[in-house]
């Protein structure tokens, strides 16, 4: 099966290049360092490294604490992070600066993967969440390089897709040294798809081990003063195509009850900032963009968060948060950055990428689920009008984050175990 998969990859490779060029028309950063995606780069290391792969911004953010622990635990071993998107690359630079090396991840064609491994010479590969690449993991197995699928998740929807390629999926999963699943349902899906007995451990989600910057509260207070201390403020975080219209419609309803309310709208992808601004203006809202550094006036109805790396600050400054990617079937986004700050969260029905976490919050009364723009408006208007109710929900969420910490230490133990099993000399670190 893997050979057929590889042949198909070779056949569509010209289309892959065309798609890369097409994406670069909207986001020129896709043209930069494009040869890295084919395994061609000057290696920053000469005697092995830890290689961590995180697709984009969300995965990089989720892995941030793990990266910092790896840097502290193995100071003599370079850490290379790969991403697929330029926004992920920018996030790596923003969070870690010169402490790590960054490359774009190689395409999963055999000759590309072999070239990449030859140049990088990794001693350990860590894949974040659901990065299951047949040739990449086969090459790890061939070279006796341990691999870890960390913070692993597998939704029911994803599991059904993987079952269409049952043989290839089983072979690929069995090439992974260890799968550290976020929850029991994730672990069950991996086992049904063919993981070996004893190959899967439930470690919890490292996202619960979120560590907020000490300066975040002060930064949030500053921007809240700019928005207006007394007015109700809600954030729509990481929205997607087709969702912004729903959120803006909900905000129009909220303003019928609370005319002074402010929506902080933060699209997931930077290339959509201008389009979302146009949508807000077309809907009749007075708009201010973060990038313009203009003051937020009393008549401002929508504040567009068209910046990078400031979502946590926006969340901390708000009274409540809607988590995007959930009113449309994208799978949702992480609710814990808001919950850790005591900000109550609401999300749509499509949270399958965070099924276990979202279900836990709903079961504990620490979040609300809505299914339409109308119900989003109803919940938002009620919470923005009732400080006691939203504080109660927010505190439940903060407590849940505290109760579920610990996955990070379990992952550190697994990494140490994988290194010891390959008989690495501790003096190398």
Structure description:
It is a single chain. With 429 residues, the chain is an alpha/beta fold. It has two domains: 2-204 and 406-428, Rossmann fold (3-Layer(aba) Sandwich); 216-403, Glycogen Phosphorylase B (Rossmann fold, 3-Layer(aba) Sandwich), CATH 3.40.50.2000. Helices cover 46% and strands 15% of the residues. It is built from 18 helices and 14 strands. The strands form two sheets. It has a seven-stranded parallel sheet, sandwiched between helices. A seven-stranded parallel sheet has the order 10-11-9-8-12-13-14, with helices on both faces. Helix 11 (244-257) links the parallel strand 8 (233-239) and strand 9 (262-267). Helix 6 (134-142) runs parallel beside helix 8, helix 10 crosses helix 13 and helix 11 (244-257) crosses helix 16 (373-385). Residues 424-429 have low confidence and may be disordered. This is 3-deoxy-D-manno-octulosonic acid transferase. One of its GO terms (molecular function) is Kdo transferase activity. It catalyses: lipid IVA (E. coli) + CMP-3-deoxy-beta-D-manno-octulosonate = alpha-Kdo-(2->6)-lipid IVA (E. coli) + CMP + H(+). It is found in: Cell inner membrane; Cell membrane.
Distance between the termini: 39 Å
Strand line-up in the sheet with most strands = 3-2-1-4-5-6-7
Give the tally of β-strands. Answer: 14
The total number of structural domains is: 2
What is the second-level CATH architecture of the largest domain? 3-Layer(aba) Sandwich
Count of alpha/pi helices: 18
CATH class of the largest domain: Alpha Beta
């Amino acid at each position: 099966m893997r050979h057929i998969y590889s042949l198909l990859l070779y056949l569509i490779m010209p289309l892959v290049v065309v798609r890369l060029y097409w994406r670069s028309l909207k986001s020129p950063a896709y043209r930069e360092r494009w040869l890295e995606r084919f395994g061609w780069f000057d290696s920053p290391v000469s005697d092995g490294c830890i290689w961590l792969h995180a697709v984009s911004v969300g995965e990089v953010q989720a892995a941030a604490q793990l990266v910092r622990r790896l840097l502290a635990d193995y100071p003599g071993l370079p850490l290379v992070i790969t991403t697929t998107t330029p926004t992920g690359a920018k996030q790596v630079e923003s969070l870690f600066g010169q402490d790590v090396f960054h490359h774009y991840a190689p395409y999963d064609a055999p000759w590309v993967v072999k070239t990449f491994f030859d140049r990088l010479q990794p001693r350990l590969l860590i894949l974040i969440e659901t990065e299951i690449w047949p040739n990449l993991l086969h090459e790890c197995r061939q070279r006796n390089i341990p691999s870890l699928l960390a913070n692993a998740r597998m939704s029911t929807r994803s599991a059904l897709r993987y079952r269409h390629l049952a043989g290839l999926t089983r072979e690929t999963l069995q090439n992974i040294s260890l799968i550290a699943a976020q929850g029991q349902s994730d672990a069950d899906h991996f086992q049904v798809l063919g993981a070996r007995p004893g190959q899967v451990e439930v470690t919890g989600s490292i996202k619960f081990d979120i560590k907020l910057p000490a300066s975040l509260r002060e930064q949030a207070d500053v921007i809240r003063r700019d928005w207006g201390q007394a007015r109700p403020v809600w954030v729509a975080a990481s929205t997607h195509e087709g969702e912004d219209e729903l959120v803006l419609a909900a905000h129009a309803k909220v303003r019928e009850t609370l005319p002074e309310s402010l929506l902080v709208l933060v699209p997931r992808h930077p290339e959509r900032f201008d389009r979302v601004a146009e949508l807000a203006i077309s809907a009749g809202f007075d708009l201010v963009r973060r990038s313009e550094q203009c003051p937020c006036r009393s008549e401002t109805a929508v504040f567009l968060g068209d910046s990078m790396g400031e979502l946590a600050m926006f969340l901390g400054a708000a009274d409540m948060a809607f988590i995007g990617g959930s009113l449309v079937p994208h799978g949702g986004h992480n609710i814990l950055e808001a919950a850790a700050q005591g900000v109550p969260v609401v999300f749509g029905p499509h949270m399958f990428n965070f099924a276990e976490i979202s279900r836990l919050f709903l079961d504990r009364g620490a979040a609300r689920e809505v299914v339409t723009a109308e119900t989003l408006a109803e919940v938002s208007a009620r919470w923005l009008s009732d400080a006691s109710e939203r504080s109660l929900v927010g505190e439940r969420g903060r407590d849940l984050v505290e109760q579920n910490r610990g996955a990070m230490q379990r992952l550190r133990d697994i990494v140490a175990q994988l290194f010891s099993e390959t008989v690495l000399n501790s003096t190398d670190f």
